[in-house]
Amino acid sequence: MGKGEGEGALKVGGRCDGLGVARTAAWFEPQATSITHARPVSRLVHRIPSHNPSMATALSLTHLGSLMRGVRSVDEVGAEERAASLAKRSIKKSSKLWALDLAVRCMDLTTLEGADTPGKVAAMCAKAVRPKPGDSTIPSVAAVCVYPLRIADCVEHLRGSTVRIASVATAFPSGQSFTSIKITETEDAVRAGAHEIDMVIDRGAFLSGDYQRVYDEIVAVKEACGQAHLKVILETGELGTYDAVRRASILAMAAGADFIKTSTGKVQPAATLPVALVMMESIRDFVRETGRPVGFKAAGGIRTAKQAIAYLVLTYETLGPDWMNPELLRLGASTLLNDVLMQIDKERTGAYQSLDYFTID
After folding, report:
1. Could you give the CA distance from residue 227 to residue 92 in angstroms, rounded to a whole number?
2. Is the peptide bond before 173 cis (omega within 30 degrees of 0)?
3. Helix, strand or coil for residue 123?
4. DSSP 176-217
5. Among candidates 235, 322, 309, which has minimal Cα distance to 279?
């Protein structure tokens, strides 16, 4: 057994020193004087076999406590100032039309209400496939997002389309349930036809410092997803600080998340540009260290085309052009689509159309 390869080693991207600390990781600052031994990660999560080589797998971690203590702090003032600056960025007309088209293609059209019915979901699916009936230039959205019981309705109405089916799971939105129930719900959702699972982390465990539990649950849910992609919802409005958002982002990606997602939409504040920036910078640093791309999803409170474009600008400036597609970028929304469609018409014709010309979200 070589140096740094024992039970006390932390291996990230294949490089570690004798203390098990990945010295070159941009998101990790070695703290050799304060490292203590966390309990070993369960054997289940040393390496999760991938059902799809292109999908995420958990990194080999045996010192999770050292990883989380080493995540560097966030410059709060700097993050807020940069986010505010990018939000003011103006774009030309041709670029704006491209951005609005991209916003539609990256959208997860969502309904997550106790009053959701088969009829409501059927109408949403029709809008997801053809956002503006009669205008074939408007693309379909990336996915619809529903509760598990409504997956079958989506399967029926989206058959033959490119729109994917995303389902929330793992005791959404609180995450406060038994791990066995979360795994079973995930497996049932995938079996029903979900292509993507939006899970919530156990914020209670995270905020109390039990990172091991959060990590283990993400790995177990990832395994339960099979070939379905996993989006991990951090619920940033409950995490309290940018530092906590960064730690949660790194933890989720290390556990194998395909996407990290801001919010459930059930807690305020939900998605904000500074929080999105912190998460995107975490993705950028993680990718530099591991070589594995991870997607980003903003959700909650995105209601206008102007807000959507601000997230697109932030993504381009932070993660680059490779992230400007629905495989790595999503915007979760229930009321955004019509405003984007109105803005597209305005850019094309020079005049706003009445809401009467658009189907109800």
Report:
1. 40
2. yes
3. helix
4. -S-HHHHHHHHHHHHHHT-SEEEEE--HHHHHTT-HHHHHHH
5. 235
Dist CA 192 CA 188 (whole Å): 6
As annotated, the active-site residues are 198, 261, 297
Alpha-carbon distance of 311 to 315, in angstroms, equals: 6
In whole angstroms, what separates CA 54 from the centre of its chain? 17
Residue with tokens 């540009």: 273
The answer to whether 127 and 337 are in contact (CB under 8 A) is yes
Q: Is 171 exposed, middle or buried (0-12, 13-18, 19+ CB in 10 A)?
A: middle
- The 10s digit of each residue's pLDDT in 81-138 is 999 999 998 888 889 999 999 999 999 999 999 999 999 999 999 999 999 999 999 9
Is there a cis peptide before residue 49, judged by omega within 30 degrees of 0? Answer: no
State the Cα–Cα distance between residues 103 and 84, nearest whole angstrom.
20
Q: What is the pLDDT of residues 268-320, one digit of tens each?
A: 999 999 999 999 999 999 999 889 999 999 999 999 999 999 999 999 999 99
